[in-house]
C-alpha cells in the first residue's frame, strides 16, 4: 500500500484518537520508525498525556518530542502577520493558517536532528491544512517524503477508523466513537470549527459550537476599557503592564472572551478550489487587529499606510494558501516591517458585548501632533491658498478629457 | 478682491448661516447674479426654508433650484460604491466623499441650463471636500470658473463672519453666534463630525456629538434579526418587503440607530496632506457593508472576489480623493459591476448593541450549493488524490529554492 | 489502462505523427469513437492533408471537423489581449497561451454538437499547454472527461512511439523517425521553439531554429516606414489600407519578418513550477505592441493608462496560466475595454534590422492637442503658480515626517 | 517682489546662462547671500568653468561648492532603481527623474553646513523637475524656504532674460542669445530633449537632436557581443573586467552609443497634469535593463519575479513623480532589495544597430540548473501525473461556475 519506502517519519502528533490511528497506520503500512512531535501552541490541552499515549503505542522515549511553542508562535508568526493587518477575504484573521508553518518547521528540524526521511500530518484531503503543512515541508527540506494518511489510506468511514483502532489496541474515549458534530482546530490565536452541523450556510451556528467566547448577550452590561501599548508595531503591554507575547495574547483572549468578542461566521474560498463555511473565534486577535490599525493611524504616513492596505489582500492570501516560507511573503514582510519603526504608542479601547470600539490613541511619534503642522518661527506649513493650485493641477487631466468630450459633442 | 470676472454663479446653498454669508459675499464681491441650488440628500433638514431664505436674500425665484436627490444618490452613488465593499483606510465607509460628486454634477447641470459661468461651494480650504467639489466641476465643465469663498475672502474669524452677516441683513439664529464645538456633514448614508472638541485623538468622543445613532449601551437587550435581499449586488428588500433605494437605506438607518450600530472614531489621512480625526455614524451602511460581503461569499467566485479585494483600496482612495468622475474610477466600476451579475440572494443578520452579526445566507445562484460539487452521474468533482499533485506542483519552485540553499550550504 | 469509460472523444488533431498516434491510442485504449478537430490558426500548414490522414486512420467523414479560425483568433483573442499591452514576465507576448482557449472552445462546441463525452489534446505533461487546454475545457463543460495521453500512456521514448505507429499502420515521414532537435508551436501570432538544442540557457539559439523571422543582420539596409491605423484600440489599416484582423496581422508578420523583428530568447517561469527556456518569434505582434502603446500615449488619460499598467502583469499571468475563461480575466477585460473608446488614430513606425522605432502619432481624439490646453477665451488652463500649491500639499506629509525625525534627533 | 525673507540660499548652479541669471536675480530680488552648488552627474561638462563664472558673478570662494557625484549617483540611485526593472509608462527608464533627488539632497546638506535657510533650482513651472526638487527639499529639511525663480519672476521671454543678463553683466555666449530649438537635460544615465522642434508628436525627431547615440543606420555592420557580470542585482564587470559604478555605466554608454542603442521617442504623462513629448537617449541603461531582466530570469523565483513585476509600475511612478524620499518608495525598495540576494551571474548580449539581444545567461545560483530538478537518489521532483491533480483543483472553481451556468440554462 505504501507508495514510497520510508525509514523514519516525524508525525505531528496531538495525542488524540485520529493521530494515534495515523501513528499505528504509519507503523503497519510503512514499517518505519515513528517519531512524534507534539507542540503547545496554546490549543488549551495538556501535553503530557500525549507523551504517555505515544509510549503506550510503542514509541521510544527518545523519539517523543514535546515542545512549548507559545511564545515563538505569537512573536514570530502572529505578530508579524498582525503588523500587516492581514484579513483573508476581508474578515478572517487567519488563525489556523498561521500555525501550520511553525509546526511544519519544527517537524523538519526534528527530522534533520533524528535523521528522518519523512514527515506526516493528520490533515484531510479536502482542506487547506494539507497544503500549508506540505508547502512548508518542501520549502524547508526539498527531498523530504511527505505522508498524508488521509489521502492514502483505505479507511473510508468512522466505523473503519474505530475498527482499525480496536485492532491495534488504541484506547478509544467513549465520546470519540461516533462522528463529531463538527471539527475544531485551536491555538492561542483562535479556535475554528467546521463541518457537519455548520455545513448549511443558511443555518445559524448553534451555541454549543462556541468554545472560546461567551455570547455577546451574556457579556457584562458594563464595558471594559483597556489600553494596549505598542512598540514598533507589536503589542508589549496591557494597561501599562508589560507582558511577553504569549501572555499578552492570552490576556487579550481572556478580555475578549468575557466580552463576547471575536466570533466570525464565514463562507470562505479554499485554496483547493471549493467554498467552505467555518466559524472562527479570535477574541484577542480581534481586539489586537483594531488596536494596531489605531496606533498606525497616528504614526504611519499616508503613503506607507495606503501601500500596506493595497498589498494586504495578497499577503493574507499567501498565508492562507500556505506560502509562509516563500520569497514573496518574505519580500512583503520586509516591506511591512520597514514601515513599523515608529508604530509605537498607546491605544485605548472599549470592549462591550461583542464589540471593540477604539476611543483614543497617543504616541510619542504621532504624525498628528499639532506642533508638527507648524514649522519654524510660527510659519504655518499649511496655507489654504495652496489648495487652489493643488486642485487645479489635479484637475488638469480631467479638464482635458472634458474638453475632448465637448469638442466631440458628447 | 475678485480675481476673475463672473456673470452668474451657481452656489451649493444649504440655507444655513454660512452659505447665506457666502451668497451675499458673492453678490458684493463679484457683483454677479447668484443662483442657489439646494439638494435633499437625506441630511434630515427641510428644504423649503432654504427657498424662503434665498428669496429674502434677493435671489430671483427662477434662480432658486431645490431638488430631492435621495433616490438618485443612493441608487447611482451609494449602491455602486457598496458593490465594491469600499472602505477608506480599512474602516471608513466614505459617507461624505460619495455625496460631493452628485451635488457638483447638479450644480453644473443648472449652470448649463441657466447659462452660468461659475460655481461656488462652502467647503473650507483645509479639507477634502473642496477637492471633491472642484474636481467634479472641472471634469464636467472644463471652462467653468470655480469660486471657493473660504479660500478667497478676508473673513478670518467667527466674529468677522457674524459682522459681515449683520452688515448684510442676514438673519442669525441665536445658537449660531458662537463657534460650534464641532462641525457636521450629513446625508442619507451618514453623519460625520469633526473639529474642536474632537481634535485631540486621545480623548473619547463626547456623547453629545452623536446624532444618528443611539449608544450601544442604551440599545435594546434583545437582538433584532433582519433579512436583506440582494439583486445583482444591490439590496432590494428588507424582511421580504421591497423598498426603493432611499427608503431601503432609511430603513436600515433606523434599524442601525436603535441598535447602536455604525459609530466610527477615526484618524484618517486627508488628500490635502494632513491627518484629521473624525467621528462617523453610518448605521445603515455598516449593516449593508457586511450584508453585501455575506451575499458575495456564496455567489462570487474566488478569482472575482480576490481581484475585487485587491483593487478595493485603490477604488476607495479614488472616491475619497474626489476622482468619482475619472476614467480610472469608471474602469474599476466596469470591473466591479461585471462581477455582480449573480450576487443575488438573502442575508440574515443579527443586530445587537453596536454589533452586526451575519448568521445566514442563501442564494438561487449559490456556488456553495452541495449539488454543484457533484457532477454528472455520480462522478465526484473533488478527488482527494488530486490534492497531492496540486501540492506537489505548487511546491516545485519552493523545493528548487530550498535545493539551491542546500547546495550553497545556507 | 483507461481509467475512465468514454464513448466519444473530440481530439485536437493536427494531422501530424504525434496526434495520429494519439488518435490510434485513443481508439485502442478507450475503444471509443474518435472525432477529430483540425483548426487553421495561421500555423502555416494546409488542413486538407489532415482530413486525408484522419480518413486513412478510420475516422468517419462526419467525425472530421476542419475550421479556419484565423479571423476569430485575431479578432476575439489576439486583439483584446493587445489592448492590455500584455507581456508575461515583462517580455513575452503570449503567442502560444492565447491560442489554446480558442481551440479548447471549439472542441467543446463540437463535443456538444456530436454528443461526445470526452476531449483530448496532444500537450505533454510538463508544460503549460495541458493546463490551458484543460482549464478551458472544464470552464466550458464542467462534466467533460479530459484525456491527456502524454500523461497516461506507457510510451516512454521516441522508439516506443515509432513502434506503436508502425504496429498501427500510421504513416511515418522519414524526418519524423528521430527525435526533433526542438519542438515548435505556431499560429498567426507567433512561433515558439523549445527543448533539446535550446535547453542550455547559456548557449545562443542556433540560426536554424528560426522560422518566422529573418535575422536582423540579413535584413535590408534601408528602413521600412509604415503607418498603422487604430480604431477603439484595435488596428484596422496599414498604410491607409483597411484589412481584416487576420490579414492585418499577416501583413505585419510579413513586414516584421523581412526586417528581422520579433525574436525573443527567454527563460520563463511555467505555471507548473519550473523554469524553461524558449525562443519566440512574434514579428507582427512586436510591431503591434509598440504601435498600440503609441496610440494610447496620446489618447489615453494618465489615470487610465497607469491603472492599465498596474494590472497588466496580473492579466498577462492569467492568460499565461490558462485562465482566459475565468471571471477575473473577464473583469479585467471589461476594465481594459472601457478604456479603449477613444484609442483611435495613426501611428508611424520605422522598422529596421530587428528594431521597431515609433516616430509619430496622430489622433482626432488626441489629449495632447495643443488647443486642449487652452480653455475658453484665451484663459490658459495651466498657470505655473498653481504648481507651487500643488507641490506644497504633496510635500505636506513628507515635511511632517521630516519634522518628526528632527524632533527625535534622527 | 520677494514673498519670503531669506538670508542665504543654496542654488543648484550649472554655470550656464540660465542659472547665472537666476543667481543674479536671487541677489537682486532677495538681497541674500547666494551659495552655488555644481555637481558632476556625468552630464559631460567640465565643472571648473562654473567656479570661474560664479566667482565672476561675485560669489565668495567659500560659497562655491563643486562635487563629483558620479559614483554616488550610479551606486545609490541608478542601480537600486534598475534592480526594480523600473520603466515609467512601460518604456521610460527615468533618467532625469532619478538625478533630481541626489542634487536636492546635496543642496540640503550644504544648506545645513553653511546655515542657509533657502534653496533654489532652475526648473520651470510646467515640468516635473520642480516637483522632484522640491519634494526632496521638503522631505529632508521641512522648514526650508524654496525659491523657484521660473515661477516667481517677471521675465516672460527670451528677450527679457537676455536684457536682464546684460543689465547685470552676465556674459552671454553667442549661441545663447536666441531661444534654443529644444532643451536638454543630461547625466550619466541619459540625455533627454524636449520642447519646440519636438512639440508636434506626429513629426519625427530631427537627427540633430540626438547627442548621446549614433543612429542605428550608421552603426557598425558587425554586432558587438558583451558579457555583463552581476552581483546581488548590480552590474560589477563587463567582459570580465571589474568596474566601479560610474565607469561601468560609462562603458555601457560607449557601447550603446556606437551601436545606436537607447533612443526613445515618447509622449508621456507629467505629474503636473499634461502630456508632453520627449526624446530620451539611454544607451547604457537600455542595455543594463535587459541584462538585469536576463540575470533575474534564471536566479529569481517566480513568486518573487511576479511580485516585482506587479509593483514595478507603482515604484516607477513614485520616482517619476519625485517621491524618492518617501516611506512608500523606501518600503518598496526594501522589498526589491530583499529579492536580489542571489541575482548574481553573467549575461551575454548582442548589440546591433539599435537592438539589444540577450543570447545567454549563467549563474552559480541558477534556479534553472538541471540538477536542481532532480532530488535525492534519482527520484525526479517532477512527476507528470501530478499535473492532473494540479489542473483538477485549479479547475474546480471554474467547473462550479460552469455548473451554475448550466443549471440556469445560460
From TrEMBL, chains A, B, C, D:
Pfam family, one: Arginosuc_synth
UniProt main location, coarse: cytoplasm
UniProt-listed Enzyme Commission number(s): 6.3.4.5
InterPro entries: Arginosuc_syn_C (IPR048268), Arginosuc_syn_N (IPR048267), Arginosuc_synth (IPR001518), Arginosuc_synth_CS (IPR018223), Arginosuc_synth_type_1_subfam (IPR023434), AS_cat/multimer_dom_body (IPR024074), Rossmann-like_a/b/a_fold (IPR014729)
UniProt-recorded Gene Ontology molecular function terms: argininosuccinate synthase activity; ATP binding
Keywords: Amino-acid biosynthesis, Arginine biosynthesis, ATP-binding, Cytoplasm, Ligase, Nucleotide-binding
Binding site for L-citrulline: 92, 97, 128, 132, 183, 192, 268, 280
Location(s) in or outside the cell: Cytoplasm
Residues annotated as binding L-aspartate: 124, 128-129
Pathway(s) served: Amino-acid biosynthesis; L-arginine biosynthesis; L-arginine from L-ornithine and carbamoyl phosphate: step 2/3
Family matches, as SUPFAM superfamilies: Adenine nucleotide alpha hydrolases-like, Argininosuccinate synthetase, C-terminal domain
Domain Arginosuccinate synthase-like N-terminal: 8-171
Keyword DNA damage (UniProt): no
Record carries keyword Cytoplasm: yes
BP-aspect Gene Ontology terms: argininosuccinate metabolic process; L-arginine biosynthetic process; urea cycle
Broad class of enzyme this protein falls into: ligase
Catalysed reactions, as listed in the record: L-citrulline + L-aspartate + ATP = 2-(N(omega)-L-arginino)succinate + AMP + diphosphate + H(+)
Residues reported in the UniProt entry to bind ATP: 12-20, 39, 122
Domain Arginosuccinate synthase C-terminal, residue spans: 182-399
GO cellular component: cytoplasm
Self-association and partners: Homotetramer.
Similarity remark: Belongs to the argininosuccinate synthase family. Type 1 subfamily.
Database matches in HAMAP family: Arg_succ_synth_type1 (MF_00005)
PANTHER family: ARGININOSUCCINATE SYNTHASE
Protein name stated in the entry: Argininosuccinate synthase
Organism this protein belongs to: Microvirga tunisiensis
